Amino acid sequence: MRTALTLLAFAFAALAADPAVIEKGMKEEQRTCVPCHSLRIIHSNRLSRAGWNKELDKMAGWGTKYSDRDAILEYLVANFGDDKPVSPPELTTDGAAKK
Amino acid sequence: MQANRRQIFAAFLAAAAARKLTAADGVTIPGKRPLILHNDRPEDLETPVKYLNTWVTPVDAFFVRQHLPRPSAIDPATYRLTINGMVSKESQITLADLQKLPQHTVPATLECTGNGRAFFTPKLPGIQWARGAVGNAEWTGPRLSDVLKLAGVDTAAKFLEIDGADSGVLQTPDFVRCMPMEKAMHPATLLALKMNGETPDIHGFPARLIVPGWDGTSWVKWVIRLTPTAKESGGFFMNPGYRYPKYALPPGSAPRPAELEVIEGMPVKSSLTAPEDQSKIALAPTVIRGFAWAGENAIERVEVSTDGGAKWQNAQLSTQKLPFAWRLFNLNWTPKEPGYYTILSRATDTAGRVQPFVPAWNPSGYLWNGIDKVGVTVEKV
To answer: Can you give the residue ranges of every domain in chain A?
Structure first.
């Protein structure tokens, strides 16, 4: 049982690390998320696999149609998982003079 | 044909967004000085705490929270506010009608419900606000009660539904909120036409709801409809959105929908603005600064510790002790020797509520009000 679980975990990690899947997920993110909002809101979050899964469900409920939901999930977990460091804050440039 | 057009439109939007993204470090928000960029479309901008050292926060430094894309610019001449539902006469109110009503100014602190979300462990989805999704402004406009009287609001109405002009993309729900009529009729609840004397579109003008002491989500922007009702109405931004557990949950656990309650008044809280967290300062006299507020109450006391909480001292408070608006605090401090210091601030309000060491973790990361903490390295000059 333990060996089977270990093998399963390995298989999972291998899948998660597959660069082709990650790249597909990145393209999927561009295609499905960008029409409604920019990507910073996604990339500033650090969530577990369960957390990202829930976000994908929420967005599907709001009308997002994924062509490859698994790829986008793998991409999010690989890049913005809760084990990843938080990016330093980014500032806007000065727009105070422009109204 | 329809699908094709939609696809082309989506591709166009994606291309436009991609262009914007390539200019990642060049995002400029007209009318705003450099702010912490959480998102640019729609705009979610946090105020660096160094701009929060004045009692009135300038509009160009004030944080911005958008749930949905900003509506296209509203022409003041054609703006209409619909009042319908439990009223004696359904009405279309113009901006001139609102300007004719008695104008009141209320200083009040506006804080995003999720301010401080970044401090919760485990992490939560949403904008990762730290200290700066908060500001204090002077809001001017007619009382909401006077506006409702124009349409003859039914005294049997128990709730007020409020709709803003912003609307969601695809099936993203519309931003509609609902509050008990008692708060809507409170003399400090305004339909503001000015913020510090200005009318910035990004903050919801020509008409923006001011709900002093309540969470930012209640302060609906670009108000276009008011509907008195008998029952509390729903919509995503009332349920499940913006609810807080009635009973505290173990960190990381799933929400219990039946035990979630609508958030109303805000808790007691203080935040440190100087010295800056993880900065280096000289071994010399310095001033510890910050602000404190307490929802519908006023601030009674702020204590500061420079030794990680072993000893506490009362800070000096700014003189105006008002409900709804923050008080600034400061404490002169001369570190005795070089080294790393942990500075804490703890507020107490007029109702005796005290800022806790550990605020309750909750599944949406709302209402962070933990004792504030900054670290500073004092070095010999």
So the answer is: 13-80
Write out the two tokens for B305.
């510790």
- Is residue B41 assigned to a domain? no
Q: Which of B16-25, B163-172, B233-242, B276-285 has the lowest mean pLDDT?
A: B16-25
Q: Are B179 and B110 members of one domain? A: yes
Does the complex come out with an ipTM higher than 0.90?
A: no
**What is the model's pLDDT at position B80?**
98
Nearest by CB to residue B31, choosing from A82, A86, A95, is A95
Return the residue matching tokens 């913005």. Answer: A80
Final residue in a domain of this structure, among B262, B292, B314: B262
Taking the CB of residue B232, how many other CB atoms lie within 10 A of it?
Answer: 15
User: What is the span of the domain harbouring residue B202?
Assistant: 59-262
Q: What is the pLDDT of residues B8-46, one digit of tens each?
A: 344 444 444 443 433 346 899 999 999 999 999 999 999
In degrees and rounded to multiples of 5, residue B218 shows phi and psi of -75, -20
Cα distances (Å, whole numbers) of residue B238 to B244, B264, B306: 11, 11, 41
Alpha-helical (H) ranges within chain B are: 2-22, 95-100, 144-149, 181-184
Which of B195, B222, B271 is closest to B31 using CA atoms? B195
CA distance A8 to chain B (A): 25
Which architecture does CATH list for A13-80? Orthogonal Bundle (1.10)
Residue B217 · residue B177 · CB < 8 Å: yes
CA distance B297 to chain A (A): 33
User: CATH number, domain at B316?
Assistant: 2.60.40.650
More confident residue, B309 or B170: B309
Distance of CA A48 to the CA centre of its chain: 10
Query: Is the peptide bond between B257 and the residue preceding it cis, with omega within 30 degrees of 0?
Result: no
Q: Across the interface, do B37 and A48 touch by the CB < 8 Å criterion?
A: no
CA distance A55 to B42: 18
pLDDT digits (tens, 9 = 90+) for B307-347: 999 999 999 999 999 999 999 999 999 999 999 999 999 99
- From the list A34, A90, A95, the residue facing B29 with the nearest CB is A95
